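Illustration: Polysaccharide deacetylase.
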Amino acid sequence: MRFFLMLLNLLYVGTVLAATDTEDTLDISGCSLVSAQVFKYPVDGLPYSGQLLSMSSSYDWSGATSSLLISQNVAQTTGTITKTLNETFSEDWGTLAIPVCHDSFIPANQNGGKIKISNGTVTVSIGGMKYLGGYHTVGGIGWHYIAAQDLVDAGFEEGDEVTISIKNSAIAPYSSYTGWGKLIKRAQGVPTIVLTFDDGGTGPWEQLDYTKDQNIKGTIFYPWDYEGLDGKLTVSELKELKEAGWDIELNGTSNDASMTSFDTAQETVDSLVEGREWLAENELNDYARFFAYPNGTYENHSSPIIKTDVSGEIGSAVVEMDDVSDIEVGMIAEARSFPKGTRVVKVNTRKNTVTLDNESLGVGRGGEELDEPSNYMSFVDDSDEFYTWKLQQKLKDAGFKIGRTTRPNTMYSRYCVGDYGLVAPSRGAFLSADDDPEEKVESWIADPQAAGTTTILYFHNILDEGAEGVNISIDTYRTWIDKLAEARDAGEIEVLTMQEWWERDCSDTSEEDSE
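Result:
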């Protein structure tokens, strides 16, 4: 059966949908520098079309190098850009992956633009039908997905001419620079579930004989200071699991405290490196690269301060508004009419003015000249040591690849997951009081089957009957194992450890898989 899955895997040979205007390189006008870096380096993010031919992977990528480019700047509040593909529709497209870059912060109440696919008769809005996997963001790039089968269900037929359009629908400056990089068809991979276990409880070891019988393996995220504590796995027990093919990786901290509880992000990383060394010294893992965030906490996010009454003059670095009392020196300033990375250098509460560190209020983010500065701005305090992505950048620099959060979602991982892996989503395997165990398990197994995605499941401990909260009973655990084995044996899904999954989808796209 595994051979059958591998054969299916090889059949999933991707290709890039060609646009009317063929391009060999990706135009990133309107995207931030961060976005440009993501597109430039596949190891940092998902691949772009110009590099796909040279990118080796377990899927033997081949195909055209053209891109569908809709990255022109749309400086107006609203605007629509449309292109017609020169490849007609086919059910064989599988799942479409559409990366969308947003050049400025998109608040929760703004949808950042609408993407529509039309055959001239039927129009489908992505997100309006089955929204497979939602989207995930890699350095500012949101990847949206939709299944070709959804288009068939809506009325698309073989050979239809396909038109793609994007409409800015948010208040300026939001979505003013929304663009497409490309569409990749057949984005789905082999449906996969990865079993992970938090907090170092002995349940997985106590149930090892049962999982061995079903040839199911998992991954332990171990808090290394728990060695010797009652009810926690010992080194000897961890070695038994390893010998049975299990993957031994790291809890985010030695004692299951939050990774943001340290004074600095570097201290957090240094601690995790110590855990890596502990695993190596105990012959459990030569070079751990995967970890789980305790309690799912991975950043301290600062909400933006929105101002809609801003006024200023071209050539001046000073802007005025009704109230500046909540703005501080050093904050990031975001607007359509000045460069990304602009910061506040002075706040005058008497005059209600803010001075920025540049005077380019008449030049848009895409380089276009503007008649007047934007009257809509946001300010963000990014000074916190654990502000968005600060910790993840340091973890990446230290060689860590996957940080599993508790954000509920499945992942498209056929072309690996890039930086998104450092805030990877997962789903809890525990049940609520009203859940029917078999129905819940079957529905969560069906999810990656439908989308060709990878779902990371997280368990805590496995206890006797009557387990509550995040722990599950032995009976429920065995229901999971039985159902997973049944789906795997039917060729419907793969059940892998973190290491096995990484080697399948990511090892050939990484600069350096081991030290």
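Reading the tokens back as a structure: The domain at 192-299+388-475+489-509 is CATH 3.20.20.370 (TIM Barrel).
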